[in-house]
Amino acid sequence: MNKFSIIERNIRSQLRRMNTNAARQKQTPTEYCLQLVRKSDYENYLCTLLLPHSIKSAAFAIRAFNVEVAQVEDQVSDSRIGAMRLQFWTDALNETYNNNPPKSPVAMELHRILQRYKLSKRYFKRLIEARLNKLSGSIFVDLESLERYCDYTTSSIYYLLLEAQGTTNVKADHAASHFGKSHGLVTLIRSVPYNARKRAMVLPQDVLLKNGVSSESIFQGRSSAGFKDAVLEVASCAKRHLKVATSLKKTAEKDLNVLFLPGICIENYLEELRKVDFDVFHPRLQRRNGFLPLQLLWRKMWS
Fold first, then answer.
1. What's the alpha-carbon Rg for the chain, to the nearest Å?
2. Taking a C-beta distance cutoff of 8 angstroms, is the pair 107, 92 a contact?
3. How many other CB atoms are there within 10 angstroms of residue 212's CB atom?
4. What gap in Å lies between CA 68 and CA 65, rounded to an integer?
5. What would the pLDDT profile of 200-220 be if each residue is shown by its tens digit?
6. What is the pLDDT of residues 125-176, one digit of tens each?
7. CA dihedral 89, 140, 170, 111 (to 10 degrees)
8. Would you state the pLDDT for residue 10?
9. Which single residue of 6, 151, 200, 263 could bond 155 by disulfide (Cβ 3.0 to 4.6 Å)?
10. Each residue of 224-256: pLDDT tens digit?
11. Do residues 213 and 230 make contact, with C-beta atoms less than 8 angstroms apart?
């Protein structure tokens, strides 16, 4: 048995032990998924709480699965080990769809959800594949590749939410595609300071080159005029996608307002970013918005 086979076996064993903690703590898989999203994806946790009861549990299972695969990159320093962890989730997904879920609370909850909702396996696979590709190629060459990554990682979640809601029409899918790209782009902009500390770059290379910005200056936390222009370009792209999504959702056959509640978070961040002149390192952008729950409730009631 070679070195990496031993490592892979150890990783699988560790992941199984980690994923049985919920049982030891007497948490149900449903509770585990809710708490995982609450801890790791707080804004989307608030938005999910306001979804109709009929799809709320499905939404938490979908977002919990996303959290699990999204966290892999932050949990490892070796891309090969990261790939092994993502393979674990690929196998877990396959086993879950084959009615033999591993004893992982997320997989078990997803299996329970699949008995009631017809959710496409390919969208869950896209969540994994995008993270796997990012592990092997850590930079985005251009804005188009960044948008494609956001479509895989974020739009896929909204496609699944539409399926859980029973919405199947082209206009809703198009709205979800643009909305996911907008949400994903804003999430990546927000992550620039965190990734800079890890010496990882999430802004597209063509935009940085056009504005004369070096990766090293970003890693050092310097906000030059060129850097702010680069951030502005990506933020403008996110705003365009949000505008298109907002227009398309009005023509969809089913009400998408509640599914698109995270639009409040997108709008809030883009406005705050504008106020600090697109300096993503500004301390103002690191604060949690205490009014967000009220804003979300207000939008749900009056949209």
1. 19
2. yes
3. 13
4. 5
5. 999 999 999 999 999 999 999
6. 999 999 999 987 678 999 999 999 999 999 999 999 999 999 988 999 999 9
7. 10
8. 56
9. 151
10. 999 999 999 999 999 999 999 999 998 887 789
11. yes
Say which DSSP state 256 is in: -
Where do we find the tokens 């980690």? 18
CB-CB neighbours of 83 under 10 Å: 17
Mean pLDDT to the nearest integer, 95-103: 96
**Dist CA 19 CA 32 (whole Å):** 10
CB 62 within 8 A of CB 119: yes
Q: Is 148 helix (H, G, I), strand (E, B) or coil?
A: helix
Which tokens belong to 102? Answer: 């591993």
Query: What six digits make up the tokens of 168?
Result: 């199947």
Q: Return the SS3 of 146.
A: helix
Q: Are the CB atoms for 293 and 285 separated by under 8 Å?
A: no
Report the distance separating Cα 86 and Cα 68, nearest Å: 9
